[in-house]
Amino acid sequence: MFWEKRLENWIKHVRHTSALPLRLKLWNGREFDFGQNAPQVTIRVPQASSLVYLLTPSLSNLGKAYVEGKLEVEGRVNEIIRVANTLAKETLKPEGKFARLARPFHHTRKKDAEAIQYHYDVSNDFYRVWLDDNMVYSCAYFENGDEDLATAQLKKIDHILTKIQVRPNDRLLDIGCGWGALVIRAAQKFGARCVGITLSQNQYELATERVKQLGLADRVEIRLQDYRDVTGTFDRITSVGMFEHVGIKHLPAYFAKMRTLLADDGFAMNHGITTTDVNNGESPYGGGEFIENYVFPHGELPHISHVLRAMQEGGLEPLDVENLRRHYAKTCSIWADNFESNTERIRQLVDDRRFRIWRVYLAGCAYAFAQDWISLNQVVCSKAGRDISTLPLSRKYMYQ
């Protein structure tokens, strides 16, 4: 049969290029080992039609096959991700269909809201299982490298608030406030008066309840609101893990909106994931396609150079840029480990399909950050052309 010859040639090719700790089991009882050592990952092919995913092993094809049950995979998730990436790399052409493509997306308020709700409104209990106690769903900051996740997340928030020099009674806006950790910390430790906005109903309800329980309702307001509808003036603005949903062509308008909300002497911080492809291309080998289809609909990652240009076009001056890629690789790795350690509990909260999506997504992100496919940049900015003589001349103040 045609598929038998093609499969045989593919197996020979992979074996020749890389000794993978992989065993392949077919529906007819045949088995193939790809390395000399004991296999750490087993892929079961339940029927001949499933071979199409394996013989063109892009990360989108392999991910889809796993999520939809076309292929069964056994092994530790970190090893599964490593094997999948090796199969893609050794089989696909880097300049072909699964290269780092920049695909156009059409963003509307309705689509953006639906994308946010799809990703974040799984359930609060689902996120609570594998995040830290404060449920901070963004890159942590491992100042010394030995911090636990909860400590590193608080250090991240403090690092941001210190960078933008939050003062008592400053009016602070947090665009995409999640479950409220940053605005709560800004009010408790820095004495700020905060507004946090989100498009997620689940986040809004839990953040509001947390603020109430902590007795901060007079200093923190949580809103279910699109950033484009916010009015007023704020001394400080933060946006953490949100601008990935804006859309590359909308970034100048996004930063322009931020400028209109920022006080003349104010400071803002944009903390977000960026691609390392200078043409704003997505993760290679179909990784970006998988995330678009299953995890972050309409999400787009710009290169840091594009971010800085869009920020300037929006009337903001970048004052400080810090790359935290290694910190996000470590954060995602911890999240993936937490996910694996709580498999039984998570399976009670979501169906098998969503469990599989998030299992490979978290481990895949850790791999992507470690490989420098994607990065994380914090950019401090202020209104362009303003007098910034009050800003310290060195970065020393950020670490005091």
Automatic annotation (TrEMBL):
GO MF entries: methyltransferase activity
Keyword Transferase in record: yes
GO biological process per UniProt: methylation
Enzyme Commission code(s) on record: 2.1.1.-
Pfam families on file: CMAS, DUF7884
Keyword Metal-binding on entry: no
Gene3D superfamilies: Vaccinia Virus protein VP39
Domain DUF7884: 12-92
Keyword annotations from UniProtKB, A to Z: Lipid metabolism, Methyltransferase, S-adenosyl-L-methionine, Transferase
Family: Belongs to the CFA/CMAS family.
Protein name (Swiss-Prot/TrEMBL): Cyclopropane-fatty-acyl-phospholipid synthase family protein
Lineage, highest ranks first: Bacteria, Pseudomonadati, Pseudomonadota, Betaproteobacteria, Burkholderiales
